[in-house]
TrEMBL record:
The keyword Iron-sulfur does not apply. This is VWCE protein. Keywords: Glycoprotein, Secreted, Signal. It comes from the Eukaryota. It is found in: Secreted. One of its GO terms (biological process) is cellular response to virus. InterPro entries: vWF_C/EGF_Fibrillin, VWF_dom. One of its GO terms (cellular component) is extracellular region. Pfam families: VWC, VWC2L_2nd. Its main location: secreted. The gene is Vwce_0. Residues 1-53, 53-114, 111-172, 178-238 form the VWFC domain. The keyword Glycoprotein applies.
Length: 269
């Protein structure tokens, strides 16, 4: 193939052929591999012989020391050691199991329960005689009883009620409202009470159902320079005038703040 080889030289051709040069002739034969393990990994790229530094089991490559369960399960555990697969299966006890077992492990039937003269199958749920508030269940030959769970209640403790023959408490209907309770300052107003919540232009009334109804006052009287009295909703146009931050009474004359040569007068109309 155009490459000179020395007498006695050995090399490997493609297709895992081992060749040697003898007396001017090339002799080739298939590479012979000695595989000392039961589940070797395939030869790596460019190699000819399988490797025993891992395992190939059911088409899946396993690393050295890898512990796994085969696909057919049944609780068998396998380990990869030097290219060999070793598996161990559990020893299942004879007869019935003390409890329910997974389907992929030992095949056995959980035992029945004998309780107060009656026999119950595994998984059966029942109530005690005369006590509907207790629920029992048969688990692998043993009976476990517990109180029937009650739903969470969103009412305060003083509104909860446990009736005769009931397992769980219920919420009583809240009493009819006797007034309006305000969360912002903790003040309670009787039904029909009218008050201002802080804005002099707004009035509120306590309704019979405990709700609060508020309404704003519309100011009708307007003038260009009204006097605003603290605590009073609408501006006062009859008491005088407000001009440049100062208050002047009716018919009072004062100089203009913009032009000292102008004289102004407050006229209530």
């Amino acid at each position: 193939r155009g490459i000179p080889r020395e007498p006695g030289a050995r090399w490997t051709e493609q297709g895992c052929q081992s060749c040697t040069c003898q007396r001017g002739r090339v002799l080739c034969e298939a590479v012979s591999c000695s595989v000392p393990c039961s589940h070797p990994l395939p030869a790596p790229a460019g190699g000819c012989c399988p490797m025993c530094t891992g395992c190939l089991h059911e088409g899946v490559a396993r690393a050295e020391g890898d512990v796994f369960s085969p696909s057919n399960g049944n609780c068998t555990v396998c380990v990869c050691l030097a290219g060999n697969i070793s598996c161990l299966s559990p020893e299942c006890p004879p007869g019935s199991c003390p409890g329910p077992s997974p389907a992929d492990c030992c095949s056995c039937a959980p035992g029945k329960c004998n309780f107060r003269g009656r026999t119950y199958a595994h998984g059966a749920r029942f109530s005690l005689d005369g006590d509907d508030c207790t629920t029992c269940v048969c688990q692998g030959g043993e009976v476990e009883c517990s109180f029937t769970p009650c739903p969470m209640l969103d009412c305060p403790q003083h509104q909860r009620h446990l009736g005769p023959g009931q397992c769980c408490s219920t919420c009583r209907d809240p009493p009819a409202p006797t007034g309006c309770f305000l969360d912002d300052n903790g003040t309670e107003f009787p039904v029909g009470q009218i008050w201002s919540p802080g804005d002099p232009c707004e009035l509120c009334i306590c309704q019979a159902d405990g709700s609060v109804s508020c309404q704003r006052t519309d100011c009708v009287e307007t003038c260009p320079y009204p006097i605003r009295i603290p605590g009073q909703c609408c501006p006062d146009c009859s008491a005088g005038c407000t001009y440049m931050g100062r208050i002047f009474s009716n018919n009072e004359t004062f100089p203009s703040a913009l032009d000292p040569c102008l004289s102004c007068i407050c006229l209530v109309r």
